[in-house]
Amino acid sequence: MELQLSVGCEVHPGNISEHFLHVAYQGEHILSFQGTAWEPVLQAPQWVDLVIKDLNQDKGTRKTVQWLLNDICPEYVNDVLETGKSELEKQVKPEAWLSSGPSPGPGRLLLVCHVSGFYPKPVWVMWMRGDQEQQGTQRGDILPNGDETWYLRATLDVAAGEAAGLACRVKHSSLGGQDLVLYWGGSHTSVGLVILVVLACLVLLFVLILGFYWIRRHRSYEDIL
């Protein structure tokens, strides 16, 4: 005889929880605990009704099951979530650098983009030319570092004369939407930094225009006097 038991709960905002307790016999789902009592599933064997009748007559066990599902399970889940909250919210920014790998052949280059030290694990890395993704990008496996962060490298096989203008773009949750961009043959920069510089230039231009008009008005006032 083989019995399987599936039990658990889901906790939602506002201390709202949902629970389940299912019992299977020989791989077939036969009954569940619903609310305050045991109930058979549709098309359950007829003998299951006898089992449920006996189970529901045991009020002590039913109250214990209710207590476990309604109180203990949500409390346990909340404790686990609270304990792991700092780990779930942990964000470590990646470091990135470029190098060249072994030549794939005469007149060709293997461009390598290294991304390391990031957490959590999901990351997007792609060789780009402007806004065009380079479909020849080959990404390796995401490998663990010794400090619980991750490492990934992405390569691109190109003709030596076509390397200029290529860049490696990195997207990661820790970057706050400011992609990390490294240009082949140049230094890396951040898209957010470029935007910041442009805004700073606009502010400076606005200040210069205001200063120009102030000087003109001041001189006009002196001429009148």
Mean pLDDT: 86
CATH architecture of the largest domain: Sandwich
CATH T-level fold name of the largest domain: Immunoglobulin-like
What would CATH call the class of the largest domain? Mainly Beta
Sheet with the most strands? 5 strands, antiparallel
What is the C-alpha radius of gyration, as a whole number of Å?
32 Å
Total strand count, please? 14
Count of domains:
3
Q: Which homologous superfamily in CATH is the superfamily of the largest domain?
A: Immunoglobulins
* Percent helix range: 25-40%
Beta fraction: 35-45%
Number of helical stretches of at least 4 residues: 4
**Backbone shape:** elongated
Domain Ig-like: 74-174
GO biological process, one term: antigen processing and presentation, endogenous lipid antigen via MHC class Ib
Transmembrane segments: 191-215
Function: Antigen-presenting protein that binds self and non-self glycolipids and presents them to T-cell receptors on natural killer T-cells.
Short description:
Helix content is 33%, strand content 37%. The chain is an alpha+beta fold. The strands form 3 sheets. Strands 5, 6, 9, 10 and 11 form a 5-stranded antiparallel beta sheet that branches. It has a 5-stranded antiparallel beta sheet with strand order 8-7-12-13-14. A 4-stranded antiparallel beta sheet has the order 1-2-3-4, covered by helices on one side.
